[in-house]
Amino acid sequence: MEYVILGNSAAAVGCIEGIRSVDREGPITVVASEPYHTYSRPLISYLLEGKTDLERMKYRPDSYYEEMGVRTRLGVRAAALQPEEHKVVLEGGEELSYDKLLVATGSTPFVPPLEGLDTVEKQFTFLSLDDGKKLEAALTPESRVFILGAGLIGLKCAEGIARRVRSVEVADLANQVLPSILDEEGAKRVQAHLEKQGLTFHLGDTVARFSGNTATLQSGASVNFDVLVLAVGVRPNVSLVQDAGGRVERGVVIDSTGLTTLPDVYAAGDCCQSYDSTSGENKVLALLPNAYFQGECAGKTMAGEASSFTRAMPMNAIGFFGLHLITAGSYRGEKLVEEDGKNYKAFFVEDGLLKGYILLGDCLENAGIYTALIREQTPLNTVDFSLLREHPQFMAFSQAKRREMFGR
Description:
Layout: E1 3-6, H1 10-20, E2 28-32, H2 44-49, H3 64-67, E3 70-74, E4 78-82, E5 87-90, E6 95-97, E7 100-103, E8 107-109, E9 123-124, H4 129-138, E10 144-148, H5 152-161, E11 167-172, H6 184-196, E12 200-203, E13 207-211, E14 214-217, E15 222-224, E16 227-230, E17 234-236, H7 239-243, E18 265-267, E19 274-276, E20 281-283, H8 288-302, E21 315-320, E22 323-329, E23 334-339, E24 344-350, E25 353-360, H9 367-375, H10 385-390, H11 399-406
Parallel strand pairs: 1-2, 1-7, 2-3, 7-18, 9-16, 10-11, 10-16, 11-12
Antiparallel strand pairs: 4-5, 5-6, 8-17, 13-14, 14-15, 19-20, 21-22, 22-25, 23-24, 24-25
Helix pairs in contact: 1-8
């Protein structure tokens, strides 16, 4: 069995390890446009901050490919798929044959068509290691940085560079920071914390036009800057599958095994849709754990072992300047809040089930208990949920449930 994997991040690693758990001998070839050993993208901001280095960013050790029997073609792009012939065409015309193929091509930063953007000399995105290196080379202690986008990517970029530049201003059309993962109250707390670190926000506002190093916002306000970072979102890289006739919606469409609508072509990670078990919707879940598990499931299936991944869910564990938060699931149903001066917890309950939660502050211990309640769809009337909301502990579960969980 000849395996080819397009991509070299979490989904690709999951696929390699899924294949090797079943098939120790079949040749695996990894083709990736980036020239680097597999690395962890969430660590790019820590690289800029000086909290890590290129060696510690590696997602697997240097010996990984050799030990797993993987041939690598790094710094090489796939140009087209020929699913009927079971071939991948590389840029330059070289063809690779496969029996099973995984597309794990990730996503690309979205660059909005803003008036005058072409007049901005120092503009960057912030998704890849090369993005981080280019941005770092442009920064000086006197740089005024303007970040367009107050989501996860924009704010992690702000954290990574804040101590090494003169100022950081952030604009977002949404009325709050982190609009995709926080409710209004949680966002207010995070914003207040970030402002104490020197960040300035323009929320409910965005750029109307650029003129060199000046951005005129829709409100009429102006922002003068030296460096621009575009962090308004990403787009799944679906063209290889789409151009080959595969079904694409928001992302590449796959079944629970990772199989696309093309024969023997699988997909995993940020380029494809997942079934969100907390909302019942098919959507792109651009999250490292989901990417890994999707890839692992696809790898096992490609190697001949029946496998499926049906428990994907939105989940984030992240920190900004020492303030940590965990979010998971969908924010639907009744909202139950526990809060004090330091900590904020919000739980979302629908039809007697926990659907999602937000934890902010020094209250993250044992958060996995909440995640398990969501994943396993545990009826809340079988646990002491009022106790769990205050203190997540296994004593809140019935004796029968504890016996089931721990085997005693």
